[in-house]
Amino acid sequence: MSSKEGSGGFRKRKHDNFPHNQRREGKDVNSSSPVMLAFKSFQQELDARHDKYERLVKLSRDITVESKRTIFLLHRITSAPDMEEILTESEIKLDGVRQKILQVAQELSGEDMHQFHRAITTGLQEYVEAVSFQHFIKTRSLISMDEINKQLIFTTEECGKENKTPSSDGQDKQFGTWRLKITPVDYLLGVADLTGELMRMCINSVGNGDIDTPFEVSQFLRQVYDGFSFIGNTGPYEVSKKLYTLKQSLAKVENACYALKVRGSEIPKHMLADVFSVKTEMIDQEEGIS
């Protein structure tokens, strides 16, 4: 065994030969020097930034959970006798989500949103999905990004209610307003996820004997798919990755419309969902093989 190796066979580090009290622990470091004071300020700034990032991550999780609960509630419309009651309850839930988004806007006051975008993007995408799903149920159309952003202008006097007066990003000290803008990428990813919820809505409608909703959803999804096809691989990677899932949802909805149009008159309404489920499984197996 080499003389430089210890009993365990590991090479001893050079500074292990020095006594503990003679190591470079910093006896000669002047804590009041300009360099140390500068690094202490850097440390405080980084700690504050990391704490803010973690708070935004927690808020994003809350926004995601509440938005998903709103989507689950809206799916009950296909079987509920009173649609207006569910829409009213969903609006209350979305108001609660917007209160969380107000806290995000307050955290980002005076900050560059893009530095913290990774912390909040998941929640914003889920919120876009919930709002656009509710808007489609009401109007059978797609909500625009500008309409979503108009709902995200808050004032302290109104406890976060919508303010029609346009304002700049961040905090307006004169009027006490906050504003959070949904980015185009968040909007596109939220709309792409919306197509999956519309496919589930179509399945539920077929199971309940509703033969109008599947055709309305099919026409809407074709328009959305055409829009995403124009983006193609030129857009952000996350957006192009959603195109395959969108295509799957469109194929399943079109298959439901085919079953309704061709065989709807010969199959009882309570059996349409079973026929559609079998066709959907066949499509999934064929795509898995290919």
* Number of β-strand runs: 2
Distance between the termini: 61 Å
CATH fold topology of the domain at 46-155 and 176-181: Methane Monooxygenase Hydroxylase, Chain G, domain 1
CATH class category name of the domain at 46-155 and 176-181 = Mainly Alpha
Class derived from helix and strand content: mainly alpha
Residue stretches low in confidence (pLDDT < 50, at least 5 long) are: 158-168, 286-290
Q: Which band does the percent of strand residues land in? A: under 5%
Q: What would you call the shape?
A: elongated
Number of helices: 8
CATH superfamily of the domain at 46-155 and 176-181: Translin, domain 1
Gross CATH architecture of the domain at 46-155 and 176-181: Up-down Bundle
Keywords: Cytoplasm, Developmental protein, Differentiation, DNA-binding, Golgi apparatus, Isopeptide bond, Magnesium, Metal-binding, Nucleus, Spermatogenesis, Ubl conjugation
GO molecular function: metal ion binding; sequence-specific DNA binding
Pfam family, one: Translin
Subunit structure: Ring-shaped heterooctamer of six TSN and two TSNAX subunits. Interacts with GOLGA3, TSNAXIP1, SUN1 and AKAP9. Interacts with the homodimeric form of C1D following gamma-radiation. Interacts with TSN and C1D in a mutually exclusive manner.
